[in-house]
């Protein structure tokens, strides 16, 4: 089975190969494959999460159809964009405790 890290690196590589302008946008973002389970019996779904700054959000949203098409070709169901600063400032977020490395990367990106 392919891990989430390898799948996200492969997604970035494919974007850089086929759409270099979109790849440049993703350089300032953190791209992660997120796995969730839904339904009975539980089915596993994977999607791409793009954590980016607020000022980059409109540029990423404009290219979302391209990103979604590439994700579907890789067997992922969706592309979701997250505002890194809003996520870091959310008082109910447990990101710092559950994934401290991602939290630090988002701190550096949002600054």
Structure description:
The termini are far apart. Strands 1-2-3 form a three-stranded mixed sheet. It is an alpha+beta fold and 111 residues long. The mean pLDDT is 89. It contains seven helices and three strands, in the order H-H-E-E-H-H-E-H-H-H.
What's a quick, concise take on this entry?
The protein is of the alpha+beta class. It has helices spanning 4-18, 20-26, 57-62, 64-73, 84-89, 95-98, 100-110; strands at 30-38, 43-52, 79-83.
What sort of overall outline do the alpha carbons produce when their principal axes are compared?
globular
Helix content: 40-55%
Distance between the termini: 35 Å
Described by strand count, sense and barrel closure, the largest sheet is:
3 strands, mixed
From the helix content, strand content and strand pairing, which structural class follows?
A: alpha+beta
Main-sheet strand order equals 1-2-3
How many helices does DSSP assign? 7
Mean pLDDT: 89
């Amino acid at each position: 089975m392919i891990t989430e890290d390898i799948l996200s690196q492969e997604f970035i590589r494919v974007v850089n190969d086929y759409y270099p302008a979109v790849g440049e946008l993703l350089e300032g973002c953190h791209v992660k494959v997120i796995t969730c389970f839904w339904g009975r019996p539980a089915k596993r779904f994977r999607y791409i999460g793009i954590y980016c700054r607020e000022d980059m959000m409109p540029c990423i949203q404009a290219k979302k159809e391209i990103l979604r098409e590439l994700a579907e070709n890789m067997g992922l169901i969706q592309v979701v964009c997250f505002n890194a600063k809003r996520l870091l400032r959310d008082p109910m977020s447990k990101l710092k405790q559950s994934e401290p490395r991602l939290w630090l990367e988002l701190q550096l990106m949002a600054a």
